[in-house]
Amino acid sequence: MLFGLGTKNANIMVTYSAALLAGCVLLIAIVLYYFTPHKLLSRSVHLSFLVTLALSAELIIDNGGLGSPLSVFLVILGLFSWAIGTWMFGAVLVVGVAITVFANPELRIDVATIGTFITIVMVPLLASLVLWSRQPAPKDEDKDERAYRELATELSQVASKSDVVINAIDDGVVALDRNGNIELINPAAQRLVGWAKQDAMGLNYTLVIKLIDAKDHEAAQAQNPIQQALDTNAQVTSDSFMMETSAGKTFAASVTVSPVGPSGAGVIIVFRDVTKARAEEREQAEFISTASHEMRTPVASIEGYLGLVLNPATATIDDKARDFITKAHASAKHLGNLFQDLLDISKADDGRIQYDPRPIDVSGALDEITQGLALKAQEKNLQLIYEPHAERNLKSSERRLSPIFYINVDPDHFREIVDNLIENAIKYTPSGNVSVNLVGDTEKIQISIVDTGIGIPKEDIPHLFQKFYRIDNSDTREIGGTGLGLYLCRKLTEQMGGTIWVESTYQKGSTFYIEFPRISNEEAARLKEELTTVTPQPLTPDSLIPSGKPTDISPPALPTNPVTPLQVSTVDFPTTSSAQAAAPAVVAPPIQTAPPHEPVFIPQPASIRPNTPLNSIENNPEQYLQPRNQ
Question: What's the CATH architecture for 358-526?
Fold first, then answer.
């Protein structure tokens, strides 16, 4: 084959332009295979097809038109034109018409020319239309490819945004795999624990995140919230630990550990330094405690004086003034209760509240509390029912048996919790009834307080037991409250080892639940016996004289010489009677004392009966000892 302008072979002639087009096709194919980006692949294929089509047209025209053997290239391109794209189909048709025109300058239209055009151009195009229009696979593949590219781009953008957010937040974020090895640590976590990223990556979390308990020891695996989340694949939150840095310093930390991915894939740790917040909370609690303590005394005085004014025996007032003073007395009483609640809460937050556990019969205690609040329910025309002691079962005619359950809790705190919950049920129930029920098994007991009141909105339930939280809507706006009762109930319940929660439907009523660990009857009897058993204390001379300490008094040093009996006479105080006022006062004789070198007993009228000789007290002290209040 010869290349050159005007150079001809017996069958095929190739011009410089055709050779140039062939080089372009080769170059495009190389670029298409090695260097074309994925997103430009479709355009590169279209360009390659067009250049190949132009090369085929050049060769066919130079070698005699559609009758040339090189027309097979046009046939092949026509067969695949619809697969490349609909406008490629049109390009092959236009090129076929152009070849026919250029190869026949005289435009002689005869049967041979029409037959050649139909055979070489139209038949392959129609075949391409039939074949590729009925095979949607390439289009589906293209859509899947495009969807894949879009998803990859979106994920890349999300990952970039996530990295920006994680690196920007002030909370420490650490990602662990299923074995507890660190896979991610953000700058805030590096700053808090004092570990650089390149040093922490791949290490076990126990080397980087060290949690210290209240005893200043490293947290055991069973109490470590991170290990608990890895073992149980459940979210764990704790704010009772200190965290130790790489330099050995510690800070109060709030830790939340959440599982990620499929079960056992790993966890995300989010923690923050709450040292400053804890200090502010302590200062606030101290202020509340001090202020409440100081203000409670004058409020109690105001309440007492208002009570005296309302007492007909001490003051006379008209009805209008009595109405005003009654309201003022109620407000003063409410204010005093508020100060007492604030004091109790500050003690509960600081762990200063006293806890004296004793075994109690839950059924009897609940029955007593319910009877004490029955009057409040009657004032609102409500029915207060204690289910275990109801006369008749609502579902059958059989009488109920009162269950006997014992728990070991502080009786005063238990009464305060149940009192508060029942009073709230009465307060927020306009009509209907309030019922108290008790169930249990061998492990625990459960108390439920059910009302038919206004209910609690779903969005308020998670915050209901927080300090100072009150539901703010049209149903509760006219009902007084401080938002402290339920918070105190939760603190007291948790302190005694119980749990408290609520289930409610708005406008349909609420049910508050309390659970405590149950103790057996034998355990309750043993604890009661321990509480009632008092070890007798030996009687000593010091116990006879509570006030002051006698000198040189000890059992071996008691006097051996006879001591003159000590006589104590009764003194009669004068009255308002003139006859008695004129009578002389009875004066006690002088006290005879023992010699200076002998021990002396100083009699105390509050603890020793009068007219008692001292030697009798020495010989039999228990006979003459009497309580101080007599």
Answer: 2-Layer Sandwich (3.30)
